[in-house]
Amino acid sequence: MQNELTGHINRLAAVIRFLPGGRLQVPENPPDNRFLIPYGGLYWQIDDPVGKTEVRSSSLFDYVLALPQDSHPVGIMHQYRLSGPEGKDVLVQERVLSLVAPEGTRPIRIAVAVNADEVDSARLGFALDILPYVAVLAALLVLMSIGQLWIGLRPLDRIGRDLEAVRDRRASRLAGAYPREVQPLVNQLNKLLESQAAAMEKARGRASDLAHGLKTPLTVLTNNAYSLREKGEVETADELDHLAETMLSHVEHELARARITPSPDQRSGDADVEKIINETVRMLRHTDAGERLAWKIDVANGLRVPVDPHDFRELVGNLLENACKWARSRINVSAVRQNGHSRLVIEDDGLGVSPERLPDLPHRGVRLDRLKPGSGLGLAIVSEIAAVYALALSLENRVEGGFRAKVVFPDVIAPENSIPE
Asked: Which of 125, 350, 384, 386 meets the CB 3.0–4.6 Å disulfide criterion with 393?
């Protein structure tokens, strides 16, 4: 449109003439018929500031374009938007030319205007035409950006999933090939995991070695007490026996604690409930106390709990040994999954525990009957394992007689099919 208006200005400049009196002569044969139609949409106006005259196209009829009263360098093209005939805006292109008049050169302002709605309509039409293509291009760019991010961040997502597998003890390190950009990070994480595992194993080994090292002098101390008792020094022997028993209880307790995994995230894997319970019961059935008992085992197939296998074996072993020690004729063991949790229940038909002594059972060294074998550490160890894994431990008397130990394990992943309460 600007090029068209410039062409009209150049053609008007070529046909401008001055009358003998110095007045402007209206050009004949306009280059476009729209210049002849009143308010036809295309207009021209020529101003002569020196001669104080003004000529206009027939299309302007009785309307005068209010050109800005500012100075323009000769030959420079100017564009602006003004109010035009019939209240419509017009786009104006103006140029000042120096023309030869009878009295000498004279500056002449030549302006050509076109209705702005033509340009606005063309711009809107162009926008509507190109909008679908721009939308498709935008969608394509968005999809490409999402694809680029998905492909670029996929190694980091894989690192996250591998670390989750390490945390859940389904793996011990980040395995497999990674892109070279993230491989150094993977190598450093593997070194960290290996050093952490080595440090924990070393600490547990040293604690176990220390406890074992103390057992030998305690055994000597017990033998000395026995010798003193044979010599008649019963009071001193009893005191030594008491000290040795107390220290031995501490040592055995620390040995058991050294074997417990420090936190759930550091467990070596999940415990196979059915396998460990069956193995423990099979071993106890060959003891003097276990041979005389009837065992009822009800364990769900494939049941696993998020507890280190060694710790679960320690927990089950202590609960079953305690039940075997006090049961009269039978022991019931059940392990099921229900309502998003796994539940282990061990019951015996023994005498039970006096209600006032129930809160003391998880404490270290508590023995209800000194005539029964044991150190009073079994239920204390069970309580410590429950604390490490945030398990719900319940020790209570049965209404029908006997004792019940119940442990509830929160599952890492809730099962799809649960057994109702």
From this structure: 386
- Residue 28 has phi, psi (to 5 degrees) of -100, 165
Q: Is the confidence at residue 313, as pLDDT, over 50?
A: yes
Burial of 296 (0-12, 13-18, 19+ CB in 10 A): exposed
pTM exceeds 0.70: no
Q: What average pLDDT is seen over the chain?
A: 82
The residue range of the domain holding 23 is 2-121
Is residue 215 within 8 Å of residue 254, measured between CB atoms?
Answer: no
Q: Is residue 228 part of a domain?
A: no
Residue 411 lies in a domain: yes
- Please give the full DSSP string across 51-65, using - where no structure is assigned: TTEEEE-GGGTT---
Please, what's the b/e burial string for 57-75 (b: 16 or more CB within 10 A of its CB; e: otherwise)?
A: bebbeebebebeeeeeeee
Give me 275's structure tokens. Answer: 């396998």
Domain end position, chosen among 121, 149, 184: 121
Share of residues in the chain with pLDDT > 70 (%)? 89
